[in-house]
């Protein structure tokens, strides 16, 4: 197993290390998916079929876009 490190900024951002980008064949505009199981997280490139599915769901999530919802979940 190869371990690669990156640092989290104050804005919760990080740079995907070059070895990870190469392993996943990442290009600008690619989307990533985080698979969470307990305290373990797996990072993967979002496959095209997955993206189409997620975009179809996105249209149905507008009911949670009120200012009240934004205030309630702002700290997350």
Give your account of this protein's structure.
The structure is a single chain. With 76 residues, this protein is α+β, with helices and mostly antiparallel strands. 33% of the residues lie in helices and 16% in strands. The protein has a two-stranded antiparallel sheet with strand order 1-2. The longest helix has 11 residues. 0% of the residues are buried. The model has no long low-confidence stretch (mean pLDDT 85).
What can be said about this structure in brief?
The protein has helices at residues 18-24, 48-58, 67-73; strands at 32-37, 40-45. It has three helices and two strands, in the order H-E-E-H-H.
Features:
76 residues; alpha+beta; two-stranded antiparallel ribbon; 3 helices; 2 strands; extended
Structural class: alpha+beta
SS element count, helices: 3
Computed Rg: 16 Å
| pLDDT < 50 runs, ≥5 residues | none
Q: Summarize the helix and strand pattern as letters.
A: HEEHH
The number of E-state strands comes to 2
Please summarize the sheet with the most strands.
Answer: 2 strands, antiparallel
Sheet with the most strands: spatial strand order: 1-2
| Shape, principal axes of CA atoms | extended
Percent helix, as a range, is 25-40%
- What is the overall pLDDT average? 85
Content of β-strand? 15-25%
How far from one another are the termini? 32 Å
